[in-house]
Amino acid sequence: MAFIEQLGVLSVTLGMVAMWAIALTLLYLAIAKQHEPLLLLPIGFGILLANLPLTGLMTPEEGLLWRFYRYGVEWEVIPPLVFLGLGAHTDFGPLLSQPRLIFLGAAAQGGVYLTFFAAQAFGFSLEEAATIGIIGGADGPTTIFLAAQLAPHLLGACAVAAYSYMALVPIIQPPIMRLLTTEQERAIRMKKARKVTAREKLLFPIAATLVIILLVPASAPLIGMFMLGNLFRESKVVERLAETAQDALMNIVTIFLGVSVGATMSAENFLRTDVILIFVLGLVAFTVSTASGLILAKLMNLVSSDKINPLVGAAGVSAVPMAARVVHKMGAEADKKNYLLMFAMGPNLAGVIGTVIAAGIFLSMLG
Amino acid sequence: MSPAANVFLSGLAGVFAGIGLLYLMMKLLARLGATAPDRSASTD
Question: Which candidate from B10, B18, B41 shows the least CB-CB separation from A215?
């Protein structure tokens, strides 16, 4: 009889079945549609595992997935390691060649703060509102990093919202871009960027670390690792470390990050009305962030003779490099010979830095 | 001022201050870079 009592099938609940459907949807999107497969696949499988009965996988102090989450995410280990890999992948040349474009990355944080305000008005606590607002930064590891510290119960929903909207950049952004720009503006050709020297690229991660961390110390785990990874790359003396950070290490931490995030999405945590609101507010954040970057680019054109194609402002939402690719495609639709990709990479990288700064400020004020 | 308004305004101001400082730093790096020999241009 004891064996029968231990049969998992007897403990399945309706909520678990609903979560299986969500897990299978994410697995379908990852495998069949290839939407952010590196993350949605482990997240989807993590959801499936966490919603099987009597497994004990998320039992505190005992469960395997609980340990992944506790020591990887809650202890702030995995998101900074993802940033180490991102730094080793990143070429800051496009940003350094056009420094003024960095302000577009700051403007795109408008969606983060506006949504923070809106979420708070909808009854979320300040900590929850900050976690929801950061979805607008379109940066998965930063969203997870902030959620783990301010609102762990919202981590799964916010992470899935952030990654889903990042995957949907080519669908969400173009209508906003068309609405806020004229055909003539979309066809603006920007002046060729200057060549950036190797010394500038080498000094950038060191100087940026000093500037950002001295201003926002709470951003140190993410910015510190991001710039260390970039220094691996630009120093050209530790190629083995740079390769490991951008390939092997990045792949390993991505597995644990995805599974851990999925594991937080139990039926009781996820099947709540406020999760729908989180997805709606996340979309608002993303939309406003896209629009704010575009609008600032238009404003900068009012005072500068060296015109910026306002489309590049939309890349300030991070989502590297998808948002930059969308900008390039939209620009090419208006003028086939307009090559905007490298110009859009500048605000795209600035968006990553801007979102980390925004998260650091939330942490220092609310953490 | 309400706590939410405080976070909202301080946050936006902080992001623009941080990005503004980075902008100045990049302008400075551009000057340093322009006067320094470019290792990437080396043909050895």
Answer: B18
